[in-house]
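User: quick one, sequence for these tokens?
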């Protein structure tokens, strides 16, 4: 069991998501199911701790924030302890912190990643907590997606097309810029590939607004959630491209139910990527081959047998439960990964 020291948070800056009440459609249910991942760690004096935690979630930096962070890092380094910060936002991957500290992030891109950055899983429901039913292997895979793939107004569509044109044009010279294209664009490209194909069956529930927040949802939240879960349970593969940030809640929710996510590689980085062989239970689609999504899924599915397909689903659920569920990730990180990390992030080999 690790002992963690918590610095007093900086006033006026939000705490990390699981330490505060966040308005949203499904947040309260999430907090009932996934407890504080640090709850089983004993708080300690800095001198006796294994690591130091700054509990704020930094989505921007001003002079006060930088001074506060420097003070925390100075104290931790003087005590010979590594210090961990949080920057869990969709568009914070370019935000740079004191290079000595480690930074937990949700969204980042490979070519922007630094030695201090650590990708963490999102805080999602464990949809398979009460049991998972494996799907039988058949002649044709079922591919699902439930979520936003369009807009309600002409103004929203115009804004969408302008963003796509800009990012795709600039993306000719930079793969990282192209990867930043709005998530709905990549969703629509993957959906179109599967719709055209005769090699897969589809189970799509498409919406014109984001259903994960109370201010944008367009139908009864209970119905939306039920349709979302059913779409995963009743399919073999779940399309899981990025959203506004370069990550997907859907990716983890599919794994929690023993289903195979189809991950579009928008220079995405996954939690514990150096330790987990994702290729054994996740279908990866290169960004340059998004139009071949259905073909890649079908070929991946055809390579399996009855036994291997069942084992794969069990493996997906197992990895989620032991390494990628929010609490399990931090349990593993602070007991198994932390001892291997240098005190100063600049010395991390990553």
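Assistant:
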């Amino acid at each position: 069991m690790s002992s963690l020291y918590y610095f007093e948070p900086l006033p006026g800056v939000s705490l990390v998501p699981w330490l505060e009440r966040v308005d949203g459609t499904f947040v309260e249910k999430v907090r009932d199911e996934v407890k504080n991942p640090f709850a089983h760690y004993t708080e300690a004096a800095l001198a006796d701790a294994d690591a130091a935690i700054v509990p704020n979630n930094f989505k921007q930096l001003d002079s006060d924030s930088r001074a506060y962070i420097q003070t925390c890092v100075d104290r931790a380094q003087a005590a010979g302890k590594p210090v961990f910060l949080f920057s869990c936002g969709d568009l914070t991957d370019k935000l740079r912190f004191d290079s000595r500290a480690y930074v937990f992030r949700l969204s980042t891109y490979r070519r922007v990643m630094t030695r201090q950055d650590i990708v963490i899983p999102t805080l999602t429901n464990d949809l398979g907590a009460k049991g998972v039913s494996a799907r039988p292997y058949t002649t044709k895979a079922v591919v699902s997606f439930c979520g936003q793939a369009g807009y309600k107004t002409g103004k929203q569509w115009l804004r969408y097309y302008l963003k796509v044109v800009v990012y795709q044009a600039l993306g000719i010279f930079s793969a990282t810029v192209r990867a930043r294209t709005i998530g709905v664009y990549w969703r629509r490209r993957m959906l179109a590939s599967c719709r055209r194909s005769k090699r897969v069956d589809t189970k799509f529930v498409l919406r014109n607004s984001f259903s994960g927040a109370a201010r944008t949802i367009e139908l009864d939240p209970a119905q939306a959630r039920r349709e979302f879960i059913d779409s995963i349970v009743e399919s073999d593969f779940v399309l899981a491209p990025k959203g506004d940030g370069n990550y997907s809640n859907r990716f983890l929710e599919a794994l929690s139910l023993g289903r195979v996510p189809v991950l579009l590689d928008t220079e995405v980085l996954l939690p514990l990527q150096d330790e987990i062989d994702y290729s054994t239970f996740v279908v990866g689609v290169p960004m340059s081959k998004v139009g071949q999504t259905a073909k890649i899924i079908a070929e991946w599915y055809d390579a399996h047998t009855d036994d291997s397909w069942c084992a794969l689903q069990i493996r997906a659920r197992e990895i989620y439960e032991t390494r990628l569920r929010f609490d399990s990730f931090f349990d593993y990180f602070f007991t198994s990964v932390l001892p291997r990390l240098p005190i100063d992030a600049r010395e991390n080999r990553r």
